[in-house]
Amino acid sequence: MLERFKLGQIVNAVGLKGESKVYPYTDYKERFEELDRLYIGDRLCEIERVRYQGNLAIVKFKGVDDRNAAEALKGEYLYVDRENARELEEDEYFIPDLVGLKVCSPEGEEYGTLKDVIQNTAQDVYEVQKPEGGVFLIPAVKQFVKKVDLEAGVITVELIEGMME
Predict the structure, then answer these.
(1) 71 & 111 share domain
(2) pLDDT tens digit sequence for 54-76
(3) Which of 26, 42, 45, 115 has the fewest CB atoms within 10 Å distance of its CB?
(4) pTM (2 d.p.)
(5) What string of DSSP letters covers the chain?
């Protein structure tokens, strides 16, 4: 299991004083307020302050003091280490813990392996790599995702006709 979790992505600079506009990859954007530091790529950085603009977090990092420095961070991913990750509710999982799990029917038929979780939609979408090649998508909702068993390494899903095509 990976020891760092993707928390968001810097999408732009804001203003002239080094603030960064962050698209959160968490359903709890206020999470940025609870952290003193996080990783920008592989660099550990301190957070000076956080504010919000719609569904985006505006974050000021220590040492990023002008627009040019903030623009240089555009596209960078933000990570938090496992020890500073928030407590999850029941039926919530960290994406790195899901990637690589087998995706199977309730009867045990293997459909493939979870390749990625797409987060820029109304709900998360599981991208599943088929054994014979190609991928298909499953909305990560209870209608389709019936059970996640991290110990067994299996996600049990119930698909509708045509979903794997």
Answers:
(1) no
(2) 989 999 999 999 999 999 999 99
(3) 42
(4) 0.70
(5) --SEEEEEEEEEEETTTTEEEEEESSS-GGGGGG-SEEEETTEEEEEEEEEEETTEEEEEETT--SHHHHHTTTT-EEEEEGGGSPPPPTT---HHHHTT-EEE-TT--EEEEEEEEE-SSSS-EEEEE-TTS-EEEEE-STTTEEEEETTTTEEEE-PPTTTT-
What is the number of structural domains in the chain? 2
Bridge partners, 49 (sequence order)? 60
- Give per-residue pLDDT as tens, 27-51: 777 889 999 999 999 899 999 999 9
The residue type found at 155 is I
Full residue range of the structural domain in which residue 69 is found: 4-83
Residue 49 tokens, joined: 């302050």
